[in-house]
């Protein structure tokens, strides 16, 4: 998605260790107009899939997910990263290892908001090693919900996430695919 | 706001200890169409205030904030509840005590995204004891940003938050004001 690639080029910064920082429009400061366009793009791509619900993870997945939900006319559920006081029982949960933070955390979704009647679209801000999305797939499986696809804002295509997700048979649709961050230069995957 | 009060009555549940659970449309599952209307209402109310940026806190403030940001044509910054790996230095921060969780956490905003040139609208999902909003006011003060007002989705008017915030001289605009949750019955403040 050209508009997103431009935003990444203009406002993203590459840090050592292949870290792409997009705090200026996605992960800390949010550009609502851009998020609306990303959400609309996800909605258009998955429009014929009979989606009943969007599932994402707090916090950076929420903005693109709510705009996709608005465009598709479906609710959004965000998985929580740790159990909250008012959400103790009645949970689907999965463990997610973060390579960035080098720690394992639990993500969880209330059983009230995900059932075997649902066909879900998973949306997340980044796909790198795929652990967060795999955790959401695990939760969908616990709920016996169908998964129509996975929508990713920024995919680091040089890491293993896409491969791991595709091995599950689920479609992965990424709005920007980064081939390399070497030498602090952003190179996108060119699909001709 | 009538539509919000209806959603609270229909989908909210009252738990012991004056806890209002609105996980069905705000705090876990999100109703994007309702969020859009809440955001538009905030935008309309504060439209003449010269707002340059909306500041909220992850995670439940993000959805109403991004729709308000879209309507006002300004970016949204969400304060983080703990410091992340890629956001170490260069932060404004404040300590926030949560009566619900009975713990103190740090909230922080990057200095890159809040300056003395900004006039901000603070948006949050709940106002109870006011600690989160006071923390955001503290961050605004550190940044020497002007504060045009505080927009709250649901205010528990029987707790001290509104009083504490109003003592700072900042306008508090709440879309739903709850007078009482006694006997597990939701009573709204009636403003005639």
UniProtKB/TrEMBL annotation, chains A, B:
Subunit record text: Homodimer.
Protein name: Xanthine phosphoribosyltransferase
Cellular component, GO annotation: cytoplasm
Keyword match Disulfide bond: no
Taxonomic lineage from the root: Bacteria, Bacillati, Bacillota, Bacilli, Bacillales
Species this protein is from: Listeria kieliensis
EC class of the enzyme, as a word: transferase
NCBIfam families cross-referenced by the UniProt entry: PRK09219.1, XPRTase
Function as written in the Swiss-Prot or TrEMBL entry: Converts the preformed base xanthine, a product of nucleic acid breakdown, to xanthosine 5'-monophosphate (XMP), so it can be reused for RNA or DNA synthesis.
Pathway: Purine metabolism; XMP biosynthesis via salvage pathway; XMP from xanthine: step 1/1
Family that this chain belongs to: Belongs to the purine/pyrimidine phosphoribosyltransferase family. Xpt subfamily.
GO molecular function annotation: xanthine phosphoribosyltransferase activity
């Amino acid at each position: 998605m050209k508009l997103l690639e431009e935003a990444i080029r203009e406002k993203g910064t590459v840090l050592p260790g292949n870290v792409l920082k997009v705090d200026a429009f996605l992960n800390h400061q949010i550009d609502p107009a851009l998020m609306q366009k990303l959400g609309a793009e996800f909605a258009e791509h998955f429009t014929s899939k009979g989606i009943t619900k969007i599932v994402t993870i707090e916090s950076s997945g929420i903005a693109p997910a709510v705009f996709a939900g608005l465009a598709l006319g479906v609710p959004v559920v965000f998985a929580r990263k740790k159990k909250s006081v008012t959400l103790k029982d009645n949970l689907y949960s999965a463990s997610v290892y973060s390579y960035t933070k080098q720690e394992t955390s639990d993500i969880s979704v209330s059983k009230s908001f995900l059932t075997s009647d649902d066909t879900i679209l998973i949306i997340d801000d980044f796909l790198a090693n795929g652990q967060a999305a795999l955790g959401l797939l695990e939760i969908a499986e616990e709920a016996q919900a169908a998964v129509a696809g996975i929508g990713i804002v920024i995919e680091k295509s040089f890491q293993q996430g896409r491969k791991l997700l595709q091995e599950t048979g689920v479609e992965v649709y990424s709005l920007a695919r980064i081939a390399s961050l070497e030498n602090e230069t952003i190179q996108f995957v060119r699909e001709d």
